[in-house]
Amino acid sequence: MSVVKINAITIPEGMGPQLEGRFAGRAKMVEAFEGFEDFQLLRPTPDQESGENRYFVYTRWASEENFQAWMDSQDFAKGHGTGQADGNTTPDGEQARKPVAQGAELMSFTVVEHVVKGA
After folding, report:
1. Are 67 and 21 in contact (CB under 8 A)?
2. Per-residue buried b or exposed e for 41-79, using 16+ beta carbons within 10 Å of the residue's own CB
3. Spans of the chain, pLDDT less than 50
4. Pairing status of strand 3-10 against strand 103-110
5. For 5-27, what is each residue's pLDDT tens digit?
6. Confidence (pTM)
7. Over the range 10-31, which residues count as b (16 or more CB within 10 Å of their CB) and which as e?
């Protein structure tokens, strides 16, 4: 069965568009990785009752080993370390911009049931 990783990302108010742009700039990196099955970047909706303001990054992998291989890869380091993969550089191209996130919490799940419309 697949494994799901959800990263809950806390960002400063007003920085959502920048976070979304950075993910859009590097989406193809994870898509080509062995064992990758699905990715979703979830934006919080204005909800006065729950007060949730974190973004959630949902990924599904064929196995825990595939996910760990992604985490250990150079592509992951490029996309999450220096930010070079998503155009995260200054105009002169020499220094990466600062991260958008103020904090993140990684959660792990095993898929027990998966329903797809029309499948």
Report:
1. no
2. beeeeeeeeeeeebbbbebbbeeeebbeebeeeeebebb
3. 82-88, 90-91, 94-95
4. antiparallel
5. 999 999 988 889 999 988 887 76
6. 0.77
7. ebeeeeeeebeebbeebeebbe
